[in-house]
Prior knowledge:
CATH architecture of the largest domain: Alpha-beta prism
Bound molecules: uridine-diphosphate-N-acetylglucosamine
Mean pLDDT: 96
Largest sheet: 4 strands, mixed
CATH topology of the largest domain: UDP-n-acetylglucosamine1-carboxyvinyl-transferase, Chain
Number of helices: 14
Structural class: alpha/beta
Amino acid sequence: MDSILVRGGGELNGVIPIAGAKNACLTLMPATLLSEEPLTLTNAPRLSDIRTMTELLGSLGAEVASLQGGQVLAMSSHNIHNHTADYDIVRKMRASILVLGPMLARDGHAIVSLPGGCAIGARPVDMHLQALEAMGADLELRDGYVHAKARGGRLTGAEFEFSVVSVGATENALLAATLARGTTVLKNAAREPEIVDLAQCLRRMGAQIEGEGTSTITIQGVDRLGGATHPVVTDRIELGTYMLAPAICGGEVECLGGRIDLVGAFCEKLDEAGVSIEETERGLKVKRKNGRVNAVNVTTEPFPGFPTDLQAQMMALLCTANGTSVLEERIFENRFMHAPELIRMGAQIDVHGGHATVTGVEKLKGARVMATDLRASVSLILAAMAAEGETVVSRVYHLDRGYERVEEKLGACGAHIERIAT
Length: 422
Ligand code: UD1
């Protein structure tokens, strides 16, 4: 299993290109199942999660060609011969559940393994299922699989209100509703940029959707969808992560493709902490205003609030802030597993329930640490770049799920970071 070795201490200066969003791409790819005509995604990120979705779609009979080094995904689902998403693939990645809505909508039936547990909390899929049931799906849970059939062979538009804001459940319902008979109204829908991107892509395929980006999305079902070419939206989490690099290490980094509207609440917190963000023609330029940043309090919330996927990285920054910060995690229970690892590097963090109190120290120190999940792994790399001495981050397969060419991108800005194959 590979590790990442970081020698900390230096400033970061340079330019980092931000890739297309993993989470958008993972919901756009299943959209191919809705049509017999080709769907091509450009600006796709090159990540192991995308390869897992490619494998899953392939197992159903979809063709997915990875072109231009993986940045273009040319997909076609004219020959779907299998309607069962197998446990062996689904267990690798929770987003696999997103094939359920499209398969059910197109062919009226699907069998999808329930995704397994996840390190950052229980993460049920009950609302995905409830939304599909509201659209006329008969569901049965058997042997760890959801067996789904559309009553009368086709889903029917319905009004459904999510009890909790859920990105995945909104996506599954939106995908399914495009081919349902009649109108679907999704209330308390998620408003994330990835949902807006999905709606734009579906509209290019011929779907009739209104209200994406607000909490009520209205979908007028159509009989068929066509092909389309769609560029994947910028990855706001990768963007936020690399914006934190100069904030933690000093120096100045320009994140190409960065947009404030993707990371508004996060930018407000960076500003409060004493980090300057300048909009340029090609992205966002970030640097620390003074020496140490100020402590700030952060609460994670659904978009447009502060994203839970940037909480671990923000904590890495606050570990060396002047003063005491409180981070509150409201989306996922058990999402502070990076805290004990940061403590190994000399951080002062007290976790109590859904809160973490971080008292800034002047310097972190290199140590051997372990990545526990995707965002936690990159928070350890950020902390390591600012620490004195060497840090070895093990279990970096988590990192490869969501960040492409991390060593290259940070190395180009002067970070001493290398992958050790073991
Ligand atoms: C997506 C993102 C993930 C991000 C999360 C929140 C992808 C592939 N992943 O995950 O990176 O951290 O949004 O921004 O896009 N819930 C239920 N029942 C359900 C579904 C969700 O109770 O059926 C709960 C979850 O346990 C959680 C909350 O709703 O507490 C939000 O989760 P959700 O938005 O669904 O996250 P994901 O779509 O899994």
